UniProtKB/TrEMBL annotation:
Protein name: ABC transporter ATP-binding protein
All copies of domain ABC transporter, residue ranges: 4-251
Keyword Disulfide bond attributed: no
PANTHER family given in the database record: AMINO ACID ABC TRANSPORTER ATP-BINDING PROTEIN (PTHR45772:SF7), CONSERVED COMPONENT OF ABC TRANSPORTER FOR NATURAL AMINO ACIDS-RELATED (PTHR45772)
Keywords of the record: ATP-binding, Nucleotide-binding, Transport
Region listing for Disordered, in residue ranges: 247-295
TM regions (residue ranges): none
Organism: Sphaerisporangium corydalis
Length: 295
């Protein structure tokens, strides 16, 4: 049985069909990339899987259990963690506390414990802190973990976000453009980190525009175009697929953005994604789930 199974997913925003019949599966500890031109529906698909959007039709199963339309907190509690295209750290909180917030999801304590600072409360808090340090070590954070999260360089903040997602002990991790805005060396480190996450037995689905990284790290690649799935296969097959080449080249003809000519780029560290900057798409409210609401 697949860990994640997306079946004939559809999502419309008024008249716009953002996802038009998407089906794919993710196995235990598998690394799957979802790629496609801007606006293809990738983040919308993530938002459906994590409960931020309610699909118009279709089913989403986690280890055989239907999670379609469940609330984000419920889905997170079942072992699905995610990161966002635009970082969602609590900037004024310490780096450590950001990750502790992730660990709190599974270390349960009740209100009375918290109010009275019972031994159980103190033990749980200590465990949270230990877990947070563990995951910050795991992601290789170099910066000050006791300082404000917003003071860290962008690449480090990305690691903190992943540490926070891992602290929730997921079976499935969804990374939305983990390499966006990273420099050459940081991308290579991100690639290594994704592989180390796999070694923990955690499955990863990533949306990524950096084709070098996608081709290098993925076991399978799902390609979307205008909400439709046009390919699903091994990286080496997908990159040669005429429909995929057409989708990217067609898009190149339509606009001048530059993030598609790296389809043939096997150098994983070139910053060819055309979204370069620290925050490739602007502010926090880019429609990637910020409203936490229904589609
Ligand atoms: N909340 C929303 N309300 C209305 N339309 C939306 C919303 N979210 C996404 N869309 C539209 O749905 C389509 C798919 O968007 P989505 O962000 O999922 O694409 P994407 O493949 O993730 O793109 P990118 O690579 O640019 O992040 C786009 O046409 C987008 O404008």
């Amino acid at each position: 049985m697949s860990l994640l199974s997306v079946e004939d997913l559809r999502l419309s925003f008024g008249g716009l069909l953002a996802i038009d019949g998407l089906s794919f599966t993710v196995g235990e500890a598998e690394i799957v990339s979802v790629i496609g031109p801007n606006g293809a529906g990738k983040t919308s698909a993530f938002n459906c899987v994590t409960g931020f959007y309610r699909p118009t039709a279709g089913r989403i199963l986690l280890s055989g259990r239907e999670i379609t339309g469940m609330r984000p907190s419920g889905i997170a509690g079942l072992g699905v963690s995610r990161t966002f295209q635009n970082l969602r750290l609590f900037g004024e909180m310490s780096v450590l506390d950001n990750v502790r917030a992730g660990a709190h999801l599974w270390l349960r304590q009740n209100f009375v414990d918290a109010l009275l600072h019972t031994p159980r409360y103190r033990r749980t808090e200590r465990e949270c802190t230990e877990q947070a340090h563990h995951w910050l070590d795991f992601v290789g954070l170099r910066g000050d973990r006791f300082g404000e999260a917003r003071a860290l360089p962008y690449g480090e903040q990305r690691r903190v976000e992943i540490a926070r997602a891992l602290a929730r002990r997921p079976a499935l991790l969804l990374l939305d453009e983990p390499a966006a805005g990273l420099n050459h060396g940081e991308k290579a480190e991100m690639l290594a980190l994704i592989r180390r996450i796999r070694e923990l037995g955690i499955a990863t689905v990533l949306i990524e525009h950096d084709m070098g990284l996608v081709m290098e790290v993925s076991e399978r690649v799902v390609v979307l175009n205008f909400g439709r799935e046009i390919a699903d296969g091994r990286p080496e097959d997908v990159r040669r697929d005429p429909a995929v080449i057409e989708a990217y080249l067609g898009r190149d003809d339509e606009d001048d953005e530059d993030d598609t000519d790296d389809t043939d780029d096997t150098d994983d560290t070139d910053d060819t994604d055309g979204k370069g900057g620290a925050d490739g798409k602007g502010g926090a409210d880019d429609g990637d789930g910020g409203g936490d609401g229904d589609a």
